[in-house]
Give the backbone structure.
Amino acid sequence: MVQDFEVTLAQKTEIAPEVWYYRFELAEGQTLDFTAGQYMLLKVDGNYRQYSIASADTMHSSFDLLVETVPGGLGSNYLVNLSIGDKAQFKGPAGVFTLKDSPSDKIFLATGTGIAPIKSMVESYFSRVNHNATIMLYFGLKNRQGVYLYDEFNELAKTYPNFMFKICLSREESLDGLDETHFGTGRVNQHVVDFVQERHNEYEYYVCGSQIAVDSLREFVVRLGVP
């Protein structure tokens, strides 16, 4: 059910060049109930901008966002100019791109800040009582300077043997100094092919990123023979 929220900015960190992590706390007495993958609508000057929730759906008194600051972007520039303790207006939750309640093994494909709802889905999945499916995350970024969330995903991988991830750096030719278990060069596609081999129909696929990236990755997965 969509509700109106007046929230307070509690944390704000630039975690990569022009990529910001925000945590907003709800007013006392308010509760946010959402399904991993859903988004909130930020109100700015009578307009609304959509941002996926990046935190697990076990959090009910606050929510996290991951936002890239875009030149001229109404919402991202409003957010980057907020200070700790400032109020903001949101409406939500909304959206149907959500984590299904199924026992199937899952592959998550994300580019850029499209990782936000995927992060929520992965963390929410492992908060459940039954979390025995194999989970593989492919996270596409341009270069090592722009890497973020490595520590968070690495900690999950250490805790849960059935969670694996690889950060695919499309503009890097060398992995010198990087953990080759969790980093790869080039785009996401070839890494997925190597992983699924003949088992491509045994997985659920979740894709999020820019519209161009989503269209391309969706077409790629369909070409593998996935319904």
Remarks:
- The mean pLDDT is 94.
